[in-house]
Each structure stands twice: as C-alpha cells, then as structure tokens.
Design brief:
single chain, 264 residues, mainly alpha, two-stranded antiparallel sheet, two-stranded antiparallel ribbon, 12 helices, 4 strands, 73% helix, globular
Amino acid sequence: MQVIKSLHNNKPFKLFLLLAGFFIANTLVAEFVGVKIFSFEQTLGYEPFSLSILGVDGLGFNLTAGVVLWPVVFIMTDVINEYFGIRSVRLLSYLAVGLVFYAFAMIYFAIDLSPNEWWQYESGKMSADPEMHVEDMNLAFNSVMGQGLGIIIGSMVAFLIGQIIDVAIFHRIKKMTGEGKVWLRATGSTLVSQFIDSYVVLIIAFYIWSDWDLSLVLAIGTVNLMYKFVVAVLLTPLIYLAHNLIDKYLGKELANKMKAEAAK
C-alpha cells in the first residue's frame, strides 16, 4: 500500500500518466477519424480552392479528418520530450503504434462477426430524420471502420519516423539555444517531422500500395504540408501555455530539475 500511495502522491508520475494517456488517445482517434475526407475551405464557409501543384490541377484542401489531431500529437511529443526526455517519447510512440495495430485487429475481428438481421436492416432506419436513414448498417460499419491496410501501415511508419526525427531535432536545437526559445525547438522540430510525415504516409499508402502516379501523391502531400505548417505555427502559443501550467503544477525547482535530466 505504501508503494501505491507513493505513486498517487508523485507529481511527475501523475503528470506522465496524464500526458501519456492524452498522447495515445489522440493517436488512436486520429487513426480512426482519418477515414473521413473533408473540405477545409467549405468547413470555413468558403468555396474550394483550385490549386495547381507539380502539374496536378484542381487541388483544394481536401484533407483527412486525422490531420486535425496530428499536429496536437506532435506538440504533445515536444512537451513530453521537454520534461521526460527522448526515451519516454520513444516508449510512448512504440506503445501507441502497438495499440493502433491492436485496435484495428479487433475492428477487423468485429467486421467478420455475422450481423444480427434486425440491427443490420432496421436499426439504421429509426432516425427521425429521413436523410439519416441507413439501409444496411453492417455495410456502413464495414465501410467506415475497415480502413485499408496500406493506409494503416503508411500512417504508422510515417508516425514513427516523424517521432524519431522530431525528438532528435528538438534536442539538437535545445543544445544550441539552451532553455530559451521554446518556440524554436518545439515549432521547428514539429515542422520538420510534419514535412516527413506528410509525404511518407502517402508514398507508402498510395504510391507503393495503390500504384498512384508519383506527381499526384507529391502534390497532395504538399497541400497537406501547407495546412500542417499553418496549424503548427498557430498552435505555438499552446506550447507556452502547457509549459506554464506544468511548471505551476510541479513547482519551478522540480520542473527545472526534470528538464535538466530530460536534456541528458
């Protein structure tokens, strides 16, 4: 009981548990919602753009819903990196990837289960809104939840590569600048890792796995990168907010001690 009590009273442990839970939850949710493609311009109430990149015309900001959360994941990476170091980020990254594959294995298992006839054909028609009626719930479930293996593998490989590069650049900048310039090491490392992530996932999922034209894959990757670049810059104040909240929670002395140990 004394060991358990010490864990509950250990502020660094509770902080790590909170950050780890949020980090893994964001990774899982980003994977699950990534199947939806949305129009960024129309979401904001504007007409879709028509960009021309690498000879590919008619490109707009049609993005997977997962890109809404991935910048948050990389910011969480930098916060965890700041206070708990590279080994902690790598541990959580490997754990997150393992849990994503486990989650999708369970989803594919659920897809193979024989559907109840009433649920499949009747439950989807119970909405009061006729536009929300679903004629075949099992087909809808399988279509939404059954993401292609190429997309899953591509996104996880890109995630791991991005994480490794992110933590390396983060500590390289911190060694050069010291404790100051939090925005430079956090935003700088995120931008580089997002650059890698934007192209690797598409190259694996669509160029290698689905035989898309390389120019189309790179053009779509560039559109994704433009969005992620803007979002990463806009989210920079949240990094300072997170640092302030954590420093107040831990106390300045303990926070500085943890950051010094993490830098080693």
